[in-house]
Amino acid sequence: MRYSLKQLAVFEAIAAMGSVSRAADHLALTQSATSMALSQLEKLLGRPLFERQGKQMQLTYWGAWLRPKARQLLFDAQQIEAGFDGQHIISGDIALIASQTAAEHLIPDLISIIDSDFPELRIDFTVKNTQKVIDSVRRYQHDLGIIEGRCDDSRLKQQVWCHDHLVVVAAKHHPYAQRDQVSLAQLEQAQWVLREPGAGTRHSFDSAIHGVIEDLDVRREYEQVPVLRTLVANSNYLSCLPYLDVEKWIEREELVALNVPELNMRRTLSFIWRADAADNPLRDCIIREAIRMTKARRREM
Length: 301
Fold this sequence. Notes:
The chain has 3 domains: about 5-85, Arc Repressor Mutant, subunit A; about 90-160 and about 270-300, Periplasmic binding protein-like II (D-Maltodextrin-Binding Protein, domain 2, 3-Layer(aba) Sandwich), CATH 3.40.190.10; about 165-265, D-Maltodextrin-Binding Protein, domain 2 (3-Layer(aba) Sandwich). Helix 1 crosses helix 2 (about 20-25), helix 2 (about 20-25) crosses helix 3 (about 30-45) and helix 6 (about 105-115) crosses helix 12 (about 280-300). It is an alpha/beta fold. Strands 3, 4, 5, 6, 7, 8, 9, 10 and 11 form a 9-stranded mixed beta sheet that branches. The protein has a two-stranded antiparallel ribbon with strand order 1-2. Helices cover about 45% and strands about 25% of the residues. The chain is elongated. It has 12 helices and 11 strands. The termini are far apart. InterPro entries: LysR_HTH_N, LysR_subst-bd, WH-like_DNA-bd_sf, WH_DNA-bd_sf. Keywords: DNA-binding, Transcription, Transcription regulation. GO terms for molecular function: DNA-binding transcription factor activity; transcription cis-regulatory region binding. It comes from Salinivibrio kushneri. Pfam families: HTH_1, LysR_substrate.
């Protein structure tokens, strides 16, 4: 075998960081040593792995082909070291990225379970909207993602975790709040504040009204759910949000969930990961424990 794990680690770091200098800092190597390791690897393999665009490094076709295989080799090497160090087999680092609903209402309890039962499994956790989660997993920036709704990208695998639903909410003083039910025509006449395009919540809502509401008066679009809740509670705006995000506000009668029989806004929360990723016991452990956690919650209800 002509190449070394160090050369593969340098290759992976450059692919992840996008530049030789940032990869050198990440690996605690000099920039010249990092450049030399990459040059040696490319010479040994007989193929260019990156296109140099100024200081930025973009994977070539061969670099993209190599990356998942290099990641698996590096992961296996870490597992070998962990095993001989006497650590638990489920040990190491995994990068998890999730959309807001899962991040706020499900992930904290999941991480608590992992910390208790698998203390050597370390989760690097990031929160973004669904489209950014998909982009990050596709670009190898995270090992595992959690999204709202569907993902049709053939480069990614998807596994349903659990279900939730969206509700249209209004302030208790809103004219629609006292109605037994609200029609689609009445929704079209209202003013709205919604999640930004790219958010899973927004995609699910847009899909639900597609073909039945032609023109929605959207006055504001924000990433932050607390901003939307407050705007609705203090004004005559409507919004559409996950029930988990407004449940306590509805119970305190600060918001009212409108009954809109013509809208079906049930959806899924799902795990996604690269289709070309090799077997990963850390990823499998997180998915298994997450499904076990939500099944236990349903039994308690």
